Amino acid sequence: xxxxxxxxxxxxxxxxxxxxxxxxxxxxxxxxxxxxxxxxxxxxxxxxxxxxxxxxxxxxxxxxxxxxxxxxxxxxxxxxxxxxxxxxxxxxxxxxxxxxxxxxxxxxxxxxxxxxxxxxxxxxxxxxxxxxxxxxxxxxxxxxxxxxxxxxxxxxxxxxxxxxxxxxxxxxxxxxxxxxxxxxxxxxxxxxxxxxxxxxxxxxxxxxxxxxxxxxxxxxxxxxxxxxxxxxxxxxxxxxxxxxxxxxxxxxxxxxxxxxxxxxxxxxxxxxxxxxxxxxxxxxxxxxxxxxxxxxxxxxxxxxxxxxxxxxxxxxxxxxxxxxxxxxxxxxx
Amino acid sequence: xxxxxxxxxxxxxxxxxxxxxxxxxxxxxxxxxxxxxxxxxxxxxxxxxxxxxxxxxxxxxxxxxxxxxxxxxxxxxxxxxxxxxxxxxxxxxxxxxxxxxxxxxxxxxxxxxxxxxxxxxxxxxxxxxxxxxxxxxxxxxxxxxxxxxxxxxxxxxxxxxxxxxxxxxxxxxxxxxxxxxxxxxxxxxxxxxxxxxxxxxxxxxxxxxxxxxxxxxxxxxxxxxxxxxxxxxxxxxxxxxxxxxxxxxxxxxxxxxxxxxxxxxxxxxxxxxxxxxxxxxxxxxxxxxxxxxxxxxxxxx
Lengths: 333, 301
Prior knowledge:
The complex is a heterodimer of chains A (333) and B (301).
Chain A: H1 7-14, H2 18-28, H3 32-40, H4 47-56, H5 61-67, H6 78-81, H7 91-103, H8 106-125, E1 132-139, E2 151-158, E3 172-173, H9 178-185, E4 189-191, H10 194-200, E5 211-219, E6 222-231, H11 239-252, H12 275-282, H13 285-298, H14 305-322
Antiparallel strand pairs in A: 1-2, 1-6, 2-3, 4-5, 5-6
Chain B: H1 31-48, E1 63-67, H2 73-81, E2 86-91, H3 94-107, E3 112-116, E4 130-136, H4 145-156, E5 157-168, E6 173-174, H5 177-192, H6 210-216, E7 220-230, H7 238-259, H8 264-279, E8 285-295
Parallel strand pairs in B: 1-2, 1-4, 2-3, 4-5
Antiparallel strand pairs in B: 5-8, 6-8, 7-8
C-alpha cells in the first residue's frame, strides 16, 4: 500500500480481496470486470461512479483524493472533495445537549456537554478517521482586578494518531498560539498548511499536524475560550467545515457559567513556555491538590476536589508566567 | 462489608419496587451517562486489545447484533472497521437508540442501525438472523433473565455462528479503601436488586456464569479469554478510568441510596475520599474482564 503510485494501482491492491471486489461492484452497480478495466487503465469511471467508489472505501478516501487529481481528465465531484460529511447538526443532538444543560448538576454539567460536543464534532468532521484532535481551551480565571493571561486545555478528544480517551494532556497556551489569536481577536481562524501557519502565526505545531483551526466560544460579546482543531490532512478546514465548527462552538456556550466569560478588555494573553517546561510543573499537580484538600480539612475549611484543582491550576499558571517565555519566531506577529 | 446505620437515614430498598421496567441502574436519559458510555466503550475496547481481540477471523461474519448497545459506541466502531458487516444494536432506551442512529448518520455508517428492544423479553428476530451476537457489560440484568436471554441468542444465531459475551466481576481490584468500599456497595446494591449472582453480594459474579450459560443454551466449542486493564496512576488507562468512575458513581448514587445499602452521608464521604485516593501517585487498580464465546451447532440445537 505504501508504494502505491496511482489511484488505479491502489484500487488494484484493494480488489485483490475477492469479497471487497464483489462488495464494491455491488455498491457501484457495475460488473466486477468494469473495476478491472479501471485498474488496467482500459476505462475510467464516470464522476458518479467515482463518487460512489470513494464512498464505498471511506478508509481510503484521503488517498484517493490525493491520487485521483494526479491523473488528468478525472474530476472528483465537488461534494466529495468538499468533504461529503453531514453538514447539519441533528436535532437529536441539540435535544440531548439542552437536556444536559437543564438537568445535570454543576459537578457533571460542563464536562458532559463538552464531552458530548467533542465526541460528536469529531465524528462529524472526521468520519473517516484520518486524524483529528479537538480541544477546549478555556480562559484561566484571572486574579481579582487582573486580566486573563492564558488558556488552559480542559478537555480533548481525537481520532487515529490522537485518540485521547485514555490519556489526558494538559496544556497552557497564550498569545503565541492559534488559540490565543482566536480568543484575543474574537474571530475564527484557520491554517490550511504548516507553512501558512508558520508565516502567519507563531503557532506551536505538533507532529503530524498539517492544518488547524480555532473558533472562539462567545456569548453576549464575551469570550470563555475557544475550540481548537488539529488535522493530519492539509487544507482540511474548508468553508463548510468551518461553518460546522462555528455551530459547535455556539453549542459549547451552554457548558460554561456566566462568570467564565470575559470581555475583550479583560483578556491580555501572555506568551506561555514550551510544553516541555510546562510538563515539569504538571507532575506536581496531584500532590498539590491532595495536600491542599488535606490542609483545608485540617483547618476545618473543607475544599472540594474541584475547588482544589482550580486553585492549583491557578498556582501553576502563575509559576509558568514567571518562567522565561519561549523565543518568538521571526514570523511572529 | 459496609457498616450500616440503624436505618434512620436509609432509603427504601429498590427491591420492594415491583416490576422495574428497566434493569439499568443509571438514568439512561442523562447526558452525562451518554457521554460516559461513549468514552467507556473506547477505553474498554482499547484495554481489551481491540474490538474482537480473541477472534482469529471474521471472514464468515456478515451480520452482527450488539445487545444493550447504549449510545452505540462498540457497534459503530465495528461498523467503521468492518464496512462489509451489517451491525445492529438494540437497547431498551429510546433515547439511547435515537442518539446511536444519529451518530451513525453523522458518520455516514450505512451498515449500522439501532432499534429499541427489551432483551429481557424474547428477541424480536427470526431464527438464524445473525452470524454473531455480542453482549458486553450487560451483567446487570436480573439473574433470572440470563438463561432465557442466552437461549434467545442461540436461536437468532445461524448454525455455526457465534455468541460472544464479555463481563467483569468488579469495577476494580484496588489499594484505594474508598474505591473498594464504593465497589462493594455497588455489588451489594445489585444483590438487593436481584441483579447479582454472587451469594454474598461482595462481587457481581456474572463472569463465572458465562461458560455454563452458553453450554446450557446448547453452544459448543466454548472458549474463554481473560483481559486485564491496569488503570493505576501513571498508566495509559488511568485518566480515562478516573473520569469514568467519577461520573459513574455519581450517577449511581440514586440507585445505591434506593437499595438502602448506604446512606447519603456515607456515600458523600466515600465518594469524596475515592476521588482523593485516585489522585494519589501510588493509586493502584486493575479491572479484569472475561470474554466467553461459543458456537451454535451446525446440525440441530
